[in-house]
Structures are given as structure tokens and as C-alpha cells.
Specification:
The protein is of the alpha/beta class. Helices cover 30% and strands 26% of the residues. It has a ten-stranded mixed sheet with strand order 2-1-21-18-17-16-4-19-20-3, covered by helices on one side. An eight-stranded parallel barrel has the order 5-6-7-8-9-10-11-12, surrounded by five helices. A three-stranded mixed sheet has the order 13-14-15. Helix 7 links the parallel strand 8 and strand 9.
Length: 486
């Protein structure tokens, strides 16, 4: 036999073996055999806060009947990959963090970024120069420096970067980090003002694209890898704080002709570009305009969205998330910001705030979202600092007069997802038989299923968990959330 023939046979055998291994791996079916169900619970009017409350066994199931309440999970049917859950380290968060004692700083970082001691955040959003959450407005260049010769991230080195670096260390040395601008420098805009809207002037498109690359390189030089960037925070809102407006066509053309090509030219073509970064109400239109242009779409990883469409008095529009995913299944979805507005210290423990998180996270994940990011991880006892008075809630507040940390119910509700669903998990098929409960499920890479169940009613609910031909009987308290790991 000739040498070339032996090589061909060897290659064919190797490919066949690889194909069989891959096929076998794909065909492995989830089984409930010998599986325990670990139950963790948080509920209003109880002491339960991510508390281990039960350890159950599966039993053989029968046909469920209409008078029973059931949660159905099918682990062998999978959907989107899970990227992570996290929050934003803003100037406000970093400024308050710097005022804490070393012990409280360590407590806060562990509370968010440790999987053992806290809720295991795995991603982080930050800002490209200032947003409203901070003590003042600033950029990285001298005003009027169109050539960016004075570019420096020194303003971030006092508070924000040290906090980010410590968060990365607590998270195990890796924290998916992405950055968003609120406004270009004033001289680059039609209004000559970073605040109150305005539009980027065409003569500064290239310089503004260069600004992103300088930021990314500067942060990475500091040891903070940047996964990606969104084009603009809330591009259709004229805010009293830093803001800049882009129509769908304007964002499309800026990405296609400037931001995408510039990142690629500067050796940053692997950085992800996230479009929209605004509310669910108009996300479908933005996706249609940008994704229908192949020259723009090729630079775009996916679409980011917020939950503030409720400012109109409407409910959260989860259906639009689903419609974007249905229309563009190869593009990704990321929730990039949400917080409870109109801070009121009397409502630190207001349970409805936490349930807003639970409802949003369950529905966003069920509709195809791959990653979910809260807004500020830390604010003070006034809901700031915010240089335009836009005070809001965070999951954890610090009372700077006492040095104490205040944990809100929202922290625990987010933790029911972030602590148990691991990066690279896959969402699995699940459903509930009553609208009294809502639920989502994922399967981690270790083969364990994580099911999150929420009860927003005034009464405890008895329910059955059905997985394949097995079931378990459980109860969830009134205004409670549970995570089942099995």
C-alpha cells in the first residue's frame, strides 16, 4: 500500500471517530436517575435569602391533571448559550466604594463577584468617560482636541479602574467587560454640549471612532480586557445628562463606515459591537434597519436593550425581544441596563422592586437573551452620586454616614440566577401550567439543570416539577423566588 493511501485511510478513520464522538456527545440524554433537587428560596416576610430550604428526590410521575400546578422542564431541548449576568461599575459606584472601610469593600466585592460568598457576577458594564452617575461630567481629552493628542484615561485611575481590577480578581481573574459612551465631547456635537442630546457632527465621525479604539487599548494596557462596546447609550433619548442621538440609519452608517472598519484596522476586529442599547419598544425597528444592511450587519454581534419603556405607563414589552430573536436568530441579545428609578430610602425593602427584576429576567431569557446586566452595583443613601439629580436604586447601597451596606431584595432575586447559572450554560425548554408562576431553566456544562421559579402572588403555591417521566412535589412561598438545582 502506498504511503499516500495510508495517510488517506488514517485521516478518514480519524474524521469518522471524531464524528462518532461528536454524535455521541450530542445524543447524551438527561436523566433524573439518582439526582437530588437542591432548593434555594428567597421570600418576603421570611428570613429566607438565597437560603437552602430543601433537598428532594424525584419520584415516578403520572399524567398531570388540571387541578395541579406544574412546572415542566425538557433538558434535551436547548436554545441560546448563556453568557453571563452582572452589573455596571460606574463612577458613582467607584466613588462610594472608595469611601468604604477595607472590610466593607471586601464584603461588597465578594457579595457580587464570588460564587461561594456571593452571587457570582460574571460580566461588567462600564462607561466611556462620564455618564450621569458620577460627581461630574468629563472626557479623556482637552476640549477641542480633534486629533485626540491629549487622550488619557487618568480620570478613571483614581476610583473606577482600581475597583474594576479588584472585581476581576475576586471573580477569578476573568470578568467579561464591555463599555458604552453616553456622549461624544461637546465640540463634536451639533449642540456643543455633552448634555441634553444633540447629534454627532459628520466631520468628527472618524475622530469619534478613533476614540473608542484609544479607550479599549488604554484599558487593556491597564490589564482590563474589553470584550466589546455598544455604539451609544439610549440613542433616541434627549436626556438632561450626557446623551447623543442616532437614528437607526445614522447608527447603521456610523458602524458600517467608521466604527466597524476602524476597530478592524486597529487590530480590534474581535471586539463585539452591540447596537441600540435602548428600550424594548423600538428595538425591532432598529434591528430591521441595521441587520438588513449586510455591510453594517457583518460588524454587529447583537442588540442590547433596556427596560425603561415603562416611562409611558406601559408594561415591559417582552414580546419585542422574542420577535427580534425570531427574525434574526443568528444575532445575539443582551439586556444592557435596568434599575429602579426615583430613589426613596423608605423603599429599600420594597418587594415589588425585586419582583420587577425576577419577571424581567425570566421573560428576557425565555425570549432568547444571552446576557443580562443590571445598572449601578453600588450607590449611596441618596441614590447617587448623580451630577444631574437622577437618583436611582441599586441592589446594594452604602450609607456613607455609618459605613454600612444595605442589601435590597433585588440583590437576592438577581442572585437566584447569577449564582447558579454558569457561563456557557444553555437554556432548555420549560413551561408552567398556571400564570400564578413564572419560570426559566438552563443546563450547565456539568450536566446540572437550574430551574428558577417565581411566585408574585399573595399566597404560597404547591406545585409539581416534571422532568421526563419523573416529578417532585414542592411549595413556593407567597412573593417568593426559588432556584432548583438537579
Amino acid at each position: 500500500m502506498k504511503k499516500n493511501d495510508l495517510i488517506i485511510i488514517f485521516v478518514c478513520f480519524s474524521l469518522s471517530a471524531f464524528s462518532q464522538q461528536k454524535s455521541q456527545k450530542q445524543n447524551i440524554k438527561y436523566t433524573t436517575s439518582n439526582k437530588e433537587i437542591l432548593v434555594y428560596t428567597t421570600a418576603e416576610n421570611t428570613k429566607n435569602r438565597l437560603t437552602s430550604t430543601a433537598n428532594l428526590k424525584f419520584e415516578p410521575s403520572r399524567q398531570p391533571i388540571e387541578t395541579e400546578i406544574a412546572v415542566f422542564v425538557e433538558p434535551d431541548i436547548t436554545f441560546q448559550d448563556f453568557i453571563g449576568i452582572g452589573g455596571a461599575i460606574t463612577d458613582a459606584s467607584a466613588e462610594i466604594f472608595a469611601q468604604l472601610s477595607k472590610e466593607k469593600q471586601e464584603e461588597l466585592l465578594n457579595a457580587y463577584y464570588s460564587s461561594e460568598k456571593g452571587i457570582g457576577y460574571s460580566l461588567l458594564r462600564t462607561t466611556i468617560h462620564s455618564s450621569d452617575f458620577g460627581s461630574g461630567s468629563y472626557t479623556y481629552i482637552n476640549e477641542g482636541d480633534k486629533d485626540l493628542k491629549t487622550f488619557s484615561i487618568d480620570p478613571d485611575k483614581k476610583y473606577r479602574l482600581p475597583m474594576i481590577k479588584r472585581a476581576i480578581a475576586i471573580a477569578g481573574g476573568k470578568l467579561l467587560t464591555y463599555a458604552t459612551p453616553w456622549s461624544p465631547p461637546a465640540f463634536m456635537k451639533t449642540t456643543n454640549n455633552m448634555l441634553k442630546g444633540g447629534v454627532l457632527l459628520p466631520e468628527f465621525y472618524q475622530e469619534w471612532a478613533n476614540y473608542y479604539t484609544k479607550f479599549i487599548k488604554a484599558y487593556e494596557k491597564e490589564g482590563v480586557p474589553i470584550w466589546g462596546t455598544s455604539t451609544q447609550n439610549e440613542p433616541l433619548a434627549t436626556q438632561t445628562w450626557e446623551s447623543c442621538l442616532y437614528t437607526a440609519e445614522g447608527e447603521r452608517d456610523f458602524i458600517k463606515n467608521y466604527l466597524g472598519p476602524t476597530l478592524k484596522k486597529e487590530g480590534l476586529g474581535d471586539k463585539k459591537i452591540v447596537i441600540w442599547d435602548h428600550n424594548r419598544d423600538l428595538m425591532y425597528h432598529r434591528a430591521n434597519v441595521i441587520y438588513s444592511d449586510p455591510d453594517a450587519s457583518r460588524y454587529v454581534w447583537g442588540l442590547g436593550f433596556h427596560w425603561y419603556e415603562t416611562w409611558t405607563g406601559a408594561s415591559q414589552n417582552f414580546d419585542n425581544v422574542k420577535k427580534v430573536k425570531e427574525a434574526y436568530p443568528d444575532k445575539n441579545l443582551m439586556f444592557t441596563e435596568g434599575c429602579l428609578e426615583k430613589f426613596d430610602a423608605a423603599k429599600y425593602q420594597f418587594w415589588t422592586n425585586a419582583e420587577r427584576y425576577g419577571i424581567a429576567m425570566i421573560n428576557d431569557f425565555n425570549n432568547g437573551t444571552a446576557a443580562w446586566t443590571d445598572w449601578n452595583i453600588l450607590l449611596d443613601q441618596h441614590g447617587g452620586p448623580n451630577h444631574v439629580g437622577n437618583f436611582c436604586f441599586a441592589p446594594i447601597h452604602a450609607d456613607t454616614s455609618t459605613g454600612e451596606l444595605i442589601y435590597t431584595p433585588s440583590y437576592y432575586y438577581i442572585g437566584h440566577f447569577s449564582k447558579f447559572i454558569k457561563q456557557n450554560a444553555k437554556r432548555v425548554s420549560s413551561a408552567v401550567s398556571r400564570t400564578t408562576l413564572s419560570s426559566t431553566s438552563f443546563i450547565n456544562t456539568d450536566g446540572k439543570v437550574v430551574t428558577v421559579i417565581m411566585n408574585a402572588t399573595n399566597n404560597p403555591v404547591d406545585y409539581n416539577l416534571f422532568v421526563h417521566d419523573s416529578k417532585a412535589k414542592l411549595q413556593i412561598p407567597a412573593h417568593g423566588i426559588q432556584t432548583l438545582v438537579y
